[in-house]
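step: validate -> pass
step: tokenize input -> pass
step: predict -> running
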Amino acid sequence: MQPVPGCPIGVFDSGIGGLTVVRALMERLPFESIVYFGDTARVPYGVKSPETITQYAMQITQFLLKQDVKLLIIACNTMAAVAYHAVENLSPVPVLDVIDAGAREAISETRTKIVGIIGTPATINSNAYARAIHQQDPTIRVFSQACPLFVPLVEEGWLNHTVTLLTAQEYLRPVLAEHIDTLVLGCTHYPLIKPLIRDVVGPDIRLVDSAEAMAAITAQLLNETNLGNPARTPPEYRFYVTDVPYHFQTIGESFLGRTLSRVEVIKW
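step: predict -> pass
step: emit ->
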């Protein structure tokens, strides 16, 4: 299957966090259609085994390829950390992932070459960000911190809650002690608490939003491969989930920054 410029971009995530990537893509590439898949019935992925995560990622990849996507974006840091190569081997179209995007952005942003990474336990334990950064610049020092409570706090809608602030202060204390100058938000949920994280780390530390970095790299790839949609017509957005949990519409729209329409539930 050869990618076709007029076809949609496929984006997938373990739940609804990847909607922050969709939002960044909508803003950066306003004429590109998008098909989104969120595995809301099996979230969270961050505490599952690499074998299980890879199995789920392959299943979702096969579904999106049947939607005739021209490009696949792994919007879930956890899936990107453990299943990128499996997805790439399965896909006849280009595959991008948020870890590579975030790593590239961190390298360009850091001045002191001391970078912090925050993410789910699976992402941090995989050491994927450190590997991605060191492949391009082995002189950068990387300090990682798992933040397992951030995802449930965000999904609870506690974006400015005192509990979330205290949790962030606790998680970020050891990373800040290493005198980092750049912090990668290594989970697609984290942009929603970026203002709170900014309050904790202060104004001098650069925050790398992997969703924004992903949109920039996607635009670059579409330009380089001539896969950008040539039609200047309103795009089509389709959203597939495996369950519609409580608060789904409210949280999903806060992630997306607009009304969440055309949502279809897929039962495996």
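step: describe -> The mean pLDDT is 94.
step: cleanup -> pass
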